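user: Please supply your own:

assistant:
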Amino acid sequence: QLAREYGLTVDYAIGTEWTQDVENQVVEAKAAEGYDLFMIYGADTSGANALYKELIDAGCKVVNYGGKVDDPQQAAATVCGDVYDYSYAAAKQMIEAMGGKGQIINVLENLGDVNTLERQKGVEAAVAEAEGVTICQTIGDINTEEEGYEKVSDALAANPDATGIIATGGTASRGMANALKDYYASNEGAGHLFAVATDPSQEVMNGLKDGTLDIGVAQNGYGQGYIGTLLLLYLTEGWTMKEPGVHIVTGYVFITTDNIDSFTADIETLSKEIAAELETTYLNAP
């Protein structure tokens, strides 16, 4: 959207696998071609900073997006949602829908990632506030959709009394959505688990439509792309960050059957509101 508005050409580069070594190779090759504006989803929350520093030392502008990286942050800013906030809020909604009682399966991704740990804290904080709710199992270290499917399937079989399940990462959510669909298909008498998934993937959207899932969390990937790219344009024009490495929170929108056809408009509106605040809140004029 922003590329169309400003007449920009944006090149996209995706590695063969999501590791820091592969990301370094891809990005360094682009820098060698003459690219000097980078918006990067750090593959490793620790190693990404070394790549960012290398680019900045070479005169490039860098914005980190998609998730936080370790401090000290080397990029000009991080543009992403507050994963603790949406995980906490989603768990609170789930607990309310469960009547304030029951057992929850908590589905997480890479436990070595700072963003996953914040998601875990958010869910656990919401559960701690509800006297009648417990976490019966926490699943971790899900790095692929297939791992998510297998681990969720095993957890469903091991916890027949579970009344809720929440996945706060996109990869885990795709696996969970497929696992739940097959679980209900092979267990006709199974009661419905209140289910929360993250990111509006096709699997999640299908699950919301067919009733397998109850709430989806849209992390505002649109806003991360729009705001991150706009921020790079400001930096090229001589604007500077008031707080280098600041976290620009892009927010989220819950998706239910009530707004499944309109939530994208809400996301765009939210993104434009944040973009309009860049100059006054985050930037110093040249």
